[in-house]
Design goal:
Elements: H1 19-35, H2 39-44, H3 57-68, E1 91-95, E2 130-134, H4 144-150, E3 155-160, H5 162-176, E4 184-189, E5 192-197, E6 202-208, E7 214-215, E8 229-231, H6 236-239, E9 247-250, E10 261-265, E11 276-280, H7 281-299, E12 306-310, H8 349-361, E13 366-369, H9 372-376, E14 382-384, H10 395-399, E15 406-410, H11 415-428
Parallel strand pairs: 3-6, 3-9, 8-10, 9-12, 12-13
Antiparallel strand pairs: 1-2, 4-5, 5-6, 7-8, 10-11, 14-15
Helix pairs in contact: 5-11, 7-8
This protein binds 2-acetamido-2-deoxy-beta-D-glucopyranose (5 copies).
Keywords: Golgi apparatus, Membrane, Signal-anchor, Transmembrane, Transmembrane helix
Main location: Golgi
Membrane topology: Single-pass type II membrane protein
Length: 430
């Protein structure tokens, strides 16, 4: 089922008289290698398969036994534990023709036409076949039955912007195959979209709140506003709809990127709107995250529920950054970036620092799904020009496709399925 990651050579220990000789020789070769021109290769394949810990069935059984014996700290939803010393977010992309994707685009009717790239003429499909391989362990394989069994009688909710909506749809696509047609439904009520798995009495929901806190971009349909205004301390208008959720996955980032400053409203949107001040974006972002954490503290029981935060999703607007054409973007990109040190300009280190600081200090556990670095490598995974367009394209645009490429959102199936695999790992194997 899973192909092991590439390894250079077998490194099993030997007990022959030559062993010390071999060790010395390999050390010399290693040093020569390190200082040779092939240094970049070492970085590209930074690990050996022998270092990677397997999630074997027996291991899961041991973990379950340990959970049952209460040897593990009680983390809601845990069925096993994560591998010690394994950072799931550090690793590399491996091409896996058979193992990925986990569903087909035309087989999942819930994907919105802004994300169905094949249906909109994307000529290549390699972007669907990459599997994330953490450096020191395998990701547990996504088991839709296990997920649904554990969601029985529960409410799982994604709250945030269109990128989180994509992740919500990816989760529905990963699960829907095992639910018969009459036992599932998808409905939208204003800002709230609900997928129901009736036999499980489970819902998976998406709630539109691009800033998490209240803003003038909250209308679920009409929200393309360039002069954005937020009320950083006001969350209840949205959060009243989140009460009773057992698992919440938050995100917010894209809508904050309007420049150095944000407009903050002190009064209400129904008032005279006079009391508007400007604030550094990072500071405003920090206040909004803190407000969200305060809500979690007051409204979610850490013994029964889990809260997650998906870190910022990078975009790929300037191909010069990864050694492409001077005026290019994600258009025409078909393979991931190989440079392990690549960090695009679009991802703000300042915002990442704020995320770390806020969640490190919070009194309630909010698990960060750190998708930023691993998504930075995926300049090939955006919807680009292969999506339903909001308005008809002009002849000038058609003559220059990269001018209208969407280098923010991601094709499904694709990268966002991996975000859910990571969420699955953190949920069940904390
Ligand atoms: C998936 O989970 C279900 C329920 O826990 C279990 O019965 C089944 O064996 C699992 N499937 C695989 C392939 O591990
Ligand atoms: C279904 O789940 C909800 C929580 O989402 C719970 O309040 C309700 O009692 C459940 N109903 C049944 C019949 O189990
Ligand atoms: C969670 O469980 C622990 C141990 O059972 C208990 O001490 C604590 O009060 C509980 N917390 C809440 C918020 O119920
Ligand atoms: C896109 O890629 C193809 C194949 O590599 C190339 O022939 C074509 O010129 C590229 N188009 C643009 C606009 O860069
Ligand atoms: C996410 O991972 C990147 C790269 O490993 C790291 O620089 C960053 O600090 C992490 N962010 C958070 C919020 O943990």
């Amino acid at each position: 089922m899973k192909s092991p990651p590439p390894s250079s050579s077998s490194s099993s220990p030997r007990r022959s008289p030559f062993s010390s000789y071999l060790i010395t020789l390999s050390f010399i070769l290693f040093v020569a290698f390190l200082y040779g021109e092939d240094f970049a290769c070492v970085l590209r394949h930074p690990f050996h398969s022998s270092e990677i810990q397997e999630y074997s069935a027996s291991k899961v059984k041991d973990d379950l036994a340990a959970v049952n014996e209460k040897k593990l700290a009680v983390v809601p939803f845990a069925v096993g534990r994560g591998k010690k010393g394994c950072d799931l977010f550090e690793g590399e992309w491996i091409y896996d023709e058979e193992g990925r994707p986990q569903y087909e685009e035309e087989e999942c009717p819930y994907i919105q036409p802004q994300l169905t790239c094949q249906a909109h003429g994307r000529p290549d499909s390699a972007y669907q076949h990459w599997r994330w391989q953490p450096r020191r362990c395998y990701l547990p394989s996504f088991n839709a039955t296990l997920m649904l069994e554990n969601l029985r009688g529960k409410r799982m909710m994604y709250v945030g912007d269109s990128l989180n909506r994509g992740q919500f749809v990816s989760m529905v696509c990963l699960l829907h195959r095992i639910i018969p047609g009459s036992a599932k439904s998808m409905e939208t009520f204003d800002s709230l979209t609900i997928f129901r798995a009736k036999d499980y009495n489970a819902t998976i929901e998406f709630y539109w709140a691009p800033f998490l806190v209240e803003s003038n971009s909250d209308n679920a349909v009409v929200h393309r506003i360039s002069d954005r205004i937020v009320r950083v301390r006001s969350i209840n208008k949205h959060a009243q709809h989140w009460k009773g959720a057992d698992i919440i996955v938050f995100n917010t980032y894209l809508w904050w990127m309007t420049g150095q400053k944000m407009k903050i409203l002190r009064g209400s949107f129904n008032g005279d709107m006079k009391n508007i001040v400007e604030m550094e974006t990072e500071e405003a972002y920090r206040l909004a995250l803190r407000r969200m954490v305060k809500w979690v503290e007051k409204n979610m029981d850490p013994n029964q529920t889990r809260a997650f935060f998906t870190s910022l999703s990078p975009s790929h607007e300037m191909s010069l950054g990864w050694g492409g054409e001077p005026d290019g973007n994600c258009y025409n990109e078909t393979t991931p970036i190989k440079d392990p040190n690549y960090w695009g300009r679009s991802s703000s280190k300042g915002i990442m620092r704020v995320i770390r600081e806020v969640f490190d200090k919070s009194n309630v556990p909010v698990t960060v799904i750190n998708i930023t670095q691993l998504s930075e490598y995926r300049n090939d995974a955006h919807t680009s020009i292969y999506k339903k367009q909001w308005s008809p394209l002009t002849p000038e645009q058609l003559a220059n496709p990269k001018s209208y490429a969407d280098c923010v959102h991601w094709c499904l199936p694709g990268l966002q399925d991996t975000w859910n695999e990571l969420l699955y790992a953190k949920l069940f194997f904390p």
